Every structure is written in C-alpha cells, then in structure tokens.
Fold this protein.
Amino acid sequence: MKLRHVLPLIIGFIFVPAALMLTVGILILVYGSVARDYLFGILIVSLVATTIAGTAATIAVLYREVRVAKLQTDFVNKVSHELRTPLTSIRMFVETLQLGRIADPVRQREALEIVADETARLSRLINRLLDWARMESGRRTYQLSLQRVEPIVDRALQAFEPQLLHAPADVTREVAPRLPQVMADPDALSEALLNLLNNAYKYTGAQKKIAIRAVAHGPAVTITVSDNGPGIPQRDQKRIFDKFYRARDPLARTIEGTGLGLAMVKHIVSAHGGRVGVSSEVGAGATFTIMLPAATPEPAAAPRPAPKTEEG
C-alpha cells in the first residue's frame, strides 16, 4: 500500500489526537485551575473527535481500496476478453486452412489476411500491457532532446493512417509555423498523440471528424486533438486519466479498450514536464490538450577577444 493510501489513517489516528492533546495542554497552561475543572469533558470530546476522525479515515481508505480492486478486476476481465477474441479467430481460420476446407485461392488469401490482422491486434495489446508495466515499475526511460513539434505530429498521423483503412475519417492537421522547439522523446510523444488519435477515432460515429493542432501558447507549446464524438460527461472528466478507468457511458462499454490509453498519455506527458487535460460537453465532442514547456535556447557565447600581439 502506498503512502498516499495510508495518509488518511495517519492523520486520523496520529495527527488529530496529537493536535487535540496539544490544545488541552495549552488550555491548562493558560487557564490553570479553570481548565482543569473541565479536563474530563475536554478529554471526552477529544476521544469522540479522534474516534470519528479515525473511523472516517478508515472508511475512506477502505473505499479507495475496494474501488481500485474493482477497477483491477474489470481490467483483467476486459483484457482476458480482448486476448481471447483474436486468439479464437486465429485458431478458427488456421484450423480451417489446415483441414483444407477453403479451396478457393481468393478465399484462402482473405482468411490469411484476417489471421494477419488479428495477430497484429494481439501484438498491439500485448505491447501496450508491457509498456504500462514498464511505466508502473519506473523502468521506462525517455531520451529527451531538442525537437521540433511538426515532425512529431506528422509521425503520429503516419502511424494513424492504417486505422483509416477500416472506416474513413476527416482528419485536419494545423501546425503553426515557426513553433518553439521542445525537449522531447519523439517516439514517446508521437505514441501519446497516436493514443489520442485512436481514442478520437473509436468514440466518433460514422461521420468522423478529427483535428490535430499545434500552436505556441505563451512559454509553452500546445497540441490538441479534437473530435465530433458524443462528448464526455463532467463526472468522468476528472478521472478519465486514471489507470483502468473507463467512462460509465454505455457506449464506452461496447468499444474495445483496456482503460490504459489515457493513463499512458498522462504518464508520457508528465515525464516531459508537461500537462494533459480534456474539455468536453455531452453531444459536442471532446478536445484533449497536451501542453509542453517550450525549450529555452541557450544564450550564445560572447565572442572572445582576439589575443593581443606584441609589435616588434
């Protein structure tokens, strides 16, 4: 259990009683015999207050642990289902091909393409789980260097293109000219943008409209990914970046996902010293914003004076 989980218990059972006892001591020192006459009552009030504070802290910790356990159970069930689905398809088509039940070469090629697609889908899921495990254990490292934002956005869009083969989408790209550079790991940052693009793609309907924009915003560079999906309820916006969490909207429950994509985005952006947020209204789409600090160029070294020479 992490420190932030037991902190309410520490406050409830240690800090609150200590503060109350200190208050009693100060009252006795200030008011003398008058305070001693009420000492028993003060002690009773202190005991009741300590009991209430400690009980409330315990309930809060237990509630949090139960909620996390439920999210983890839902996550395991969801991942198990998503692993089982492609495996079932792969096994079925491989067995069909082995038994020679598909004689038509065109049908055979279609079956092999389905097997290839399902294998790629399975590989993506496993890689995502491995990436998250490295993030959680602190073993994922980032190679930060001075980078231009435009190539990173283009790399994410290029990786996103295969999605458009399944269903078309109107994708808009707007990158302001002469953006400040940022300290970034280009692979990791493009992965975060790709997660946001995939997320927008999944949660929009048949007429998909997705826009990715990058602009300078004061001492920062802001990258946004917007969509025309159903929007995110206010109650979910504060928790949508938590690991394992998925919106309670019934639509979200019918869409594939592990509840890790946005948590990974938050982890990557935080490692870059940036912030990620969302603004949305139900029925009006959603806009995810990544804000990265602009790199401060190192001051140019002052020209060194030429060495003096002695005239002979």
Summary: The chain is about 55% helix and 15% strand. The domain at 1-140 is CATH 1.10.287.130 (Helix Hairpins). The longest strand covers residues 209-217. The mean pLDDT is 78.
